[in-house]
Amino acid sequence: MKFKKVLSFVVVAAMALGIQSVAQSLSPSTTWHWNKGTIVVDTPARPAGQKSALGLTVEKLPVVRVAFVGLGMRGPGAVERFTYIPGVEIVALCDYVEARAEACQKYLRKAGLPPAQIFSGEKGYEEVCKLPNVDLVYVATDWDHHFPVAKCALENGKNTAIEVPSAMNLEQCWELIDLSEKTRKHCMILENCCYDWYEMNTLNMAQHGVFGEVLRAEGAYIHNLDDYWDDYWKNPDGSDPDQLGWRMKYNMENRGDVYATHGLGPVAQALDIHRGDRFTTLVAMDTKSAHGKEYVEKKTGRPCNNFRNGDNTTTLMRTENGKVVEIQHNVMNPQPYNRLYKLSGTRGYATKYPEEHYAIDANQLKATGHKPKFDNLTSHGFMPKAEQDALKAQYEHPILKKYGGLAKEVGGHGGMDFIMDSRLVYCLQNGLPLDMDVYDLAEWCCLAELGTLSMDNNCASVAFPDFTRGEWNVVKGFRHAFANADDEAEAERVAKDFTAKLKEKAAADNVWEKYDKAKAKAAEKAQKAAEKAAKKAAKQ
Predict the structure, then answer these.
(1) Where do the Gfo/Idh/MocA-like oxidoreductase N-terminal domain residues begin and end (predicted)?
(2) Which of 50, 205, 249, 254 has its CA 20 to 30 A from that of 169?
(3) What are the strands of the beta sheet with 2-3, ordered from one edge?
(4) Domain range list for the chain
């Protein structure tokens, strides 16, 4: 039996539970059928005239003109980081609330860069996406607005980078894939955890065979958010009458691993997902909702009988090549922060939490070119610190060598945010494929809907759709792209020269003095208009 619209079944269940809104993590266009006890999610055919975006490149952008949309929690930090990257022009700042967009001008002022255009309101992003002088739209809104902003940007021919999770269901995944393929523009998931120090160095080791063949991996997002729930934006459009904040509201209304990418992204790269391997099947299980339900009841003062997401969700996945990945999600319970990140190979083991360790025996290290000082080194225990430090030094990732020092000064989750942004700009300036493409975006974000399908059907196995539409084995192995030394040096020269001249012109033209005068004049005009309106109202 084939189910043309899964959503209809969700609506019935939601009505029975008294849920007022339909879960966004289940999309109405998803079709699936049972095959020997497994839910098989269908892969839609590629529309005529489209071709794969694997290895997609665009014309070199010596100067990357960027617009930021969403300037609440994550956006301001991104604006500040981009002021440190040569060859970038920040041309637009956009947020639902004008004051938040305006507040980010301080980063441009501090850097000596000219002010950006300000856009605001519910549809302000549509004006931004139509600007002719924008190459990249950087989306850092709440989850509900990631997709509509990204869709608008791609439809207007802009390269797009989207905070995580970049798509909330399969329908959004497929639409972003089709748009990227059709427009030949990048659609990148902003997964910063792929750029953390341990993950990058460990990836480099895995790619050089230090762990043998990696057979199993773990990842997670375990982060108690009790101190932050009330800080998440509350949409003034009335969609959140209880003022829960968008993130708690989303967890209440949606089941599944709704924030899988921090744990999944780094291990997917280590396993060459859609570059020689692919996810084929998953099974998901969750606990009951205890903490989330309790929070909502305390916040609203009434019973909560419809909290969809369990406190802890565990997803097990198997790949075409017989690898297994385990991903966990828990933002409710009191636990130390943990992304797990474990690689288990035929010759070695890596684990990041609660402490960074490797377990590799002496013979394997010698085979990979490392000369351990301890002859009795075995994989039955973790490597001594001195040996571990030597191993990390030997396999320090070239991206860390290039950006690591400045990244620690600029910051952003210890610097990994800055490395992510710098690599994005580097690839655009050099006309290279991005580190993370639209297929990564889909494969790392689809756990929400696939896991929901599993759990809503008694934890049944669910088959992954093939987001590459049969091309997952065309590219052999995940690798970061680099320009040759001469091209890279020339791109850096042009970028630094542009930024220096941009700052010189901003200073010579007294742009900020003029900006402040214009703002003061506008404020005075608005004040007079308000006073006039008040007097008119008083007379009536």
Answers:
(1) 64-188
(2) 50
(3) 2-3, 32-35, 38-41, 461-463, 279-286, 313-319, 324-330, 214-222, 342-345, 348-351, 357-360
(4) 193-398+437-480
Q: What is the pLDDT of residues 396-434, one digit of tens each?
A: 999 999 999 999 999 989 999 999 999 999 999 999 999
SS3 276: coil
Q: What is the DSSP-derived secondary structure letter of residue 256?
A: S
Maximum Cα interatomic distance, the chain, rounded to a whole number of Å:
94
User: What is the rounded distance in angstroms from the CA atom of residue 35 to the CA atom of residue 266?
Assistant: 31
> Which architecture, in CATH terms, is 193-398+437-480?
2-Layer Sandwich (3.30)
> Amino acid letter at 50?
Q
Q: How many CB atoms sit inside 10 A of residue 224's CB?
A: 15
Output the CA torsion sign for 330, 336, 341, 346. negative
Fill in the amino acid letter for 72.
G
Closest CA to 264 of 442, 433, 427: 442
Q: What is the 3-state secondary structure (H, E, C) of 329-389?
A: EECCCCCCCECCCEEEECCEEEECCCCCEEEECHHHHHHCCCCCCCCCCCCCCCCCHHHHH
Q: Does residue 89 register a pLDDT over 60?
A: yes
Q: How far does the chain reach from its first CA to its final CA, in angstroms? A: 68
Select from 143, 162, 142 the least CA-distant residue to 151. Answer: 162
Distance CA 437, CA 280 (A): 19
Say how far apart CA 342 and CA 349 lie, in whole Å. Answer: 7
Can you say whether residue 222 is alpha, beta or left, with left for phi > 0 and alpha for psi between -120 and 50 degrees? beta
Helix, coil or strand: residue 138: strand
Contact 250, 229 (CB under 8 A): no
Residues 106-143: pLDDT tens digits? 999 999 999 999 999 999 999 999 999 999 999 999 99
| Helix, strand, or coil (residue 122) | coil
Model confidence at 8: pLDDT above 50 = no
